């Protein structure tokens, strides 16, 4: 199975988790599951809630493919899109942009297209270099530190 299509209902995230588990098992990359699933599930949740406004008549598709040095997931919704350039690499206050921040921090590449209706997340599987690992650790520490302060 190279893709999954779901109705825009948050309860369908379970089906996406199962899909990701199958992909990671098939590709023998289960040790990457936590990183991949957190980023992809965030993208799917954004597509459901913000892209399709939880309209169950609209769908979200998740496709995966092999890419140079790893694996890529493309998540697409049927919404109006959004101005993704307005979101920085740091989470915004009041909870806005947290999902985009996590997607960028956990993937090796996060590329929006089709007016913001589609996002491609790439994950290097051959090995993450030490500097990229350190960047992720620092970014996530900052993220969770901000969450402690703002709560």
Strand order in space, largest sheet: 1-2-3-5-4
CATH architecture: 2-Layer Sandwich
CATH-defined superfamily: Histidine kinase-like ATPase, C-terminal domain
Instruction: Give the averaged pLDDT, no decimals.
Output: 87
How do you describe this structure in short?
With 151 residues, this protein is of the alpha+beta class. It has four helices and five strands, in the order βααββαββα.
Mind explaining what this structure looks like?
The protein is an alpha+beta fold. The chain has one domain (3-150): Histidine kinase-like ATPase, C-terminal domain (Heat Shock Protein 90, 2-Layer Sandwich), CATH 3.30.565.10. It is 42% helix and 22% strand. The chain has helices spanning 13-26, 33-51, 98-106, 130-150; strands spanning 3-7, 59-67, 70-76, 109-113, 118-124. It has a five-stranded antiparallel sheet, covered by helices on one side. α1 (13-26) packs antiparallel against α2 (33-51), α2 packs antiparallel against α3 and α3 runs antiparallel to α4. It is globular, with a radius of gyration of 15 Å. The termini are far apart.
Feature tags:
4 helices, alpha+beta, 151 residues, Heat Shock Protein 90, 22% strand, single chain
């Amino acid at each position: 199975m190279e893709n999954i299509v779901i109705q825009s209902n948050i309860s369908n995230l379970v089906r996406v988790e199962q899909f990701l588990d199958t992909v990671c098992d098939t590709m023998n990359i289960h040790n990457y599951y936590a990183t991949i699933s957190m980023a992809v599930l965030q993208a799917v949740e954004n597509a459901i809630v913000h892209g399709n406004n939880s309209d169950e008549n609209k769908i979200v598709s998740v496709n995966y493919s092999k890419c140079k040095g790893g694996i890529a997931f493309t998540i697409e919704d049927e919404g109006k899109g959004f101005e993704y350039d307005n979101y920085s690499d740091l989470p915004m206050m009041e909870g806005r942009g947290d999902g985009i921040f996590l997607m960028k921090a956990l993937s090796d590449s996060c590329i929006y297209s089709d007016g913001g209706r589609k996002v491609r997340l790439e994950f290097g599987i051959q090995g993450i270099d030490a500097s990229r690992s350190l960047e992720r650790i620092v970014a996530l520490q900052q993220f969770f530190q901000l969450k402690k302060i703002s709560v």
